[in-house]
Amino acid sequence: MPKLSLSARVLWLTSLGLLLVTLAGLLFQVRSQVESERQAAEDNIRSVAAALLPVLRQTLVVGDIETVQQTLDSVGRYRGLARIVVYQAVPYQVIAQTRGKGADTVISAPAWFTGLLNEEIASYQSTITLGGITYAELLIEPSLAMVVENAWQVSRQALIASLVFLIGLVVLLGMMLRQGLKPLTGLAQTVKRFGDGELSERATVAGPPEIASTAAAFNQMAASIEELLAKVRVSEQTNRRLALVVEQSDDAILTLDLEGHVLSWNQGAERLYGYPAQEVMGRSVGFLLPDSRQGELAQWLDRVRHAIAGTRFESQLLTRDARLLDVSISASPLFDADGKRIGEINIGHDISERKAMARALHMAKDAAETANRAKSEFLANMSHEIRTPMNGILGMTELALDSELTEEQRDYLNIVKSSAEALLTVLNDILDFSKIEAGRLELEHITFELESVVSGAVRTLAIQAKDKGLALEWNIAADVPQFLVGDPARLRQILLNLLGNALKFTERGGVKVQVTVDQHLEHGVRLHLAVSDTGIGIPAEQLDSIFKAFSQVDASMTRRFGGTGLGLSICGRLAEMMGGRIWAESVLGQGSTFHFTVELAVAGAPPAPETETPERSAQAVAATCQVMLVEDVPVNQKLVQALLEKRGYGVTLAQDGEQALALLQQGRQFDLILMDLQMPGLDGYETTVRIREMERGSGRRTPIVAVTASALTTDRERCLALGMDAFMAKPFRADELYAAVERYCPQEG
C-alpha cells in the first residue's frame, strides 16, 4: 500500500478531527436540547396543574364528576401530556381520567438516537384538599415521545448543517493545502538536483512563512556547502602542494606514531640518512641512534608523547653507511581530525658542518684565551722584572741626588733619573693599553679639585718647559665647577700625555691648557679641555691616524723624539670611558691644538684634611713608628731601609715570609708591615693570610701595605681581599713611601 502524501495525511487527519469535534458538539447539543425539552415539559405540567387544581377542587367538593371529566378532556388536548388521572387513594378508585394528545405522538428518530437519550420526565402528582379534607389525588404524566421527537427534529437540522459545513471546510482545506504545499514540492525537486551535484541550484523563497523560511534556510545551507566545498578543493590543492614540498624538501621530514614507529619518510630523509622509505616504514626510530646513544630513545619517545609545538633538540644520528651526523631536530605534535595526539612530526637538518665550525671556534677561543692569559702573565712578569730594578735605580738616584755632589755628577744622575722615568712611561703605556684592550681598566669615582689636577700636571712639566725656554700656561674658565667626581689620576694622565707631546714637538713659543664648560648636564658637566702649542704641526691627512695604536706621524719621529705610539690611543680610550672624545686641529709649521671632552659629576667641597707640619711628620711620627720590611731583593731592602731611616723610622728586615712570621711569633710588635708579594718560598699573599690568622682573637691588627712590582688591577683586588690595607706599586717615589707610612703609624697628640 503506497504511503499517503503529506497533504493527504494532513487532510485526512484534519477531516477526522473536525468530524469528531462536530459529533461531540452535536451530542452535546442534543443532550442540551433534550434537557431543555424535558425542563420545558416539566414546567408546562406544573403550569397545567396550577391552573387545573382550583377547578378540580371546586367541582369535587360539590361532587360534579362529569365536570371533572370534561375539564380533564379539555386539558388533554395539549400535545405535551400523555395522561391525566384524578383518583381516590384509599381505597384506590379512579374518579376521572383522560388520554393526552401527546400519547399518540409517533417517534421518527432512529433507534440509535433514542438510545442516546436515556432521559426520564418526572410525572406531576398532587393531593386535592379543601378545608383540611382530602377529596382526591391528581396525576399528570408528560409525553416523552414528544420530547424525543422535538429533540430529533432540531438535531437532524443541526447535523445536516454541520455535515454541509464540514464537507465545505474539508474541500477548502484541501485546496489551501494543495496551494500551500506547492512550494514544498519545488523545494524537494531543488534538493534532489542539489544532491545530484548541481551546487548552484537554489530554492524559490515563496509560500507560507514556514516553507519560505525553510527554503531560505536551504539556500543558506547550500551556499555554505558550496563555499565549504570550494575551501575543501583549495585545501586539497594546498595539501597536495605541501605534500610535494615535504616530499621534495632538503630537510629530513618524518612522522612517528606514539610508539616511535615511522609513519612517513620523505626524500630529504632518504638523502640525509641513506635509508629508502620502504625500508624504514613501521620500524622504530631507534635504528637512527648509535649503540652508544640508545639510552636517548626513551627521551625521544617521551617527546613524541608530550612535546609541544616548536620543541627543538640536537642529537647525533647514524646513517645507513655508519656515518655519525650532528642533526638539529624540530619536533611538533601530530593530531588526528578529532584533536587526539597520534604522534610527532620531526624535521631534521644536518648541522655537522656548523658543529665542526663551532668546535673549531671553541678551540680557537680557548687558544686565544690561553694566548691572552700568556700575554697577561708575560706582561705581569715583564712589569715585575722591569719595575723591581727600576725601583732600585730611581730610589738610589733620588738618595744620591740628596747627597753632596759635584755639578757634573748631578747632571749625570739627572740623566739617569729622566732615562729611567722615560722607560717607566713606556712600560706604563704598554700595561695601560693591554688593560684597555682586555676591558680590565676600571675608572675611579672620587671627589677631587679640578684646579689641583690641572696645576699639578703643569707643575710636573714646568722644569722641562723652562729648560727648553717655553712658556707653559693654564687657565680654567670661571663657570667650571671647582669640585668634581671622577678619576683624577686618569684625567691627569691625559693632560700629562698631551702636555708632554706638546713640549716635545715645540721648539719656541709655548704651550697652553684651556678648560671650559662644553655643556651642563642633568647631574654634572661636560668639560672641554684643549692643549695648544706653537710646534711643528701635523699634516691634515694624518690627523685621523695619530689616535690609532702604534701610530706616529712618521718613523723619524720615533727616532728623534722617542715614544711607543700608544700615548694618544690610550688618551682617546680614556676620554671615551669618561663619556667624551678626543680630536686634533693643526696647521703644519704653525702648531697644533688637541681637544678632549669628559663628563663628570659635580660635587660639593670635601672636608678639609687634617694636616701636620713637615717637622711633625718626619720627627714625632718617626720617633714612635716601627716598620717591618718583608723583601727578598737586597737593592730594594737597602733602598727602603735608607729612605725610612733617613726620616728616623725604625726598620726591621725579613728576607721572606717565614722570617716575618718568626719575628711575630717571638712577640715582636710592629706599627706597619711593608710586604713584597713575589718572594721565594712563602709569598706575600700566604704570609698575609697567616698573619691575620695569628691575630685572630688577640684584638690586634697590624696594617699591611703591599709593595710590589705588579701593576695589575687583579693583584690589587686580591691583596685587599686577603686582608691587606693598601697597595703601593714599584717603582715608587720617596714621598709616596712616606705618605703610606705616615698614614698607618701612630701619632702623638
TrEMBL record:
Name of the molecule in the record: Sensory/regulatory protein RpfC
4-aspartylphosphate carried by residues: D676
Residue ranges of domain HAMP in the record: 178-230
Entry-linked PROSITE patterns: HAMP (PS50885), HIS_KIN (PS50109), PAC (PS50113), PAS (PS50112), RESPONSE_REGULATORY (PS50110)
Subunit note: At low DSF concentrations, interacts with RpfF.
Protein species of origin: Sulfuritortus calidifontis
Keywords: ATP-binding, Kinase, Membrane, Nucleotide-binding, Phosphoprotein, Transferase, Transmembrane, Transmembrane helix, Two-component regulatory system
Domain Response regulatory: 626-745
Coiled-coil segments on the chain, per record: none
Catalytic activity: ATP + protein L-histidine = ADP + protein N-phospho-L-histidine
Residue span, PAS domain: 238-311
InterPro entries reported in the protein's UniProt record: CheY-like_superfamily, HAMP_dom, HATPase_C_sf, HATPase_dom, His_kinase_dom, HisK_dim/P_dom, HisK_dim/P_sf, PAS
